[in-house]
Amino acid sequence: AYFAVDLPFREWLAGLRPENGKEEKIAEWKDTLKKIIFEQADKLLENAGNRDFLGKKISEKGKSEEIYNIMHAYNKFKNWLLSPKVLGKQKGGKQ
Predict the structure, then answer these.
(1) With contact defined as beta carbons under 8 Å apart, do 81 and 23 qualify?
(2) Among residues 71, 94, 87, which one has the least CA distance to residue 33?
(3) Most CB within 10 Å of its CB: which of 8, 47, 87, 94?
(4) What is the pLDDT of residues 1-40, one digit of tens each?
């Protein structure tokens, strides 16, 4: 994942100019980073095997047993990444 982020970050950094708005450029990088992270997550999902999709049973104290699989993890990860607490709001106030 580091290599997926390294070059785009260096390019973004090299494109910074004093006349650029700080908040706008930061929002631009966060949008780029989210895109890269989603692409990496999609690659993991594409390469998942049957066992990953079948999942395994997880039981927590006081809760019923549920099957936890790659789709569950993928959706949970996407929701977490899109939360404003992680990388903030996207450009235009969208999350």
Answers:
(1) no
(2) 87
(3) 87
(4) 789 999 999 999 999 998 988 999 999 999 999 999 999 9
Q: Is 56 exposed, middle or buried (0-12, 13-18, 19+ CB in 10 A)?
A: exposed
Q: How many domains does the chain have?
A: 1
Distance, first Cα to last Cα, the chain: 23
Q: How confident is the model at residue 94 (pLDDT cuts 50, 70, 90)?
A: very low
Domain residues for 85?
A: 2-93
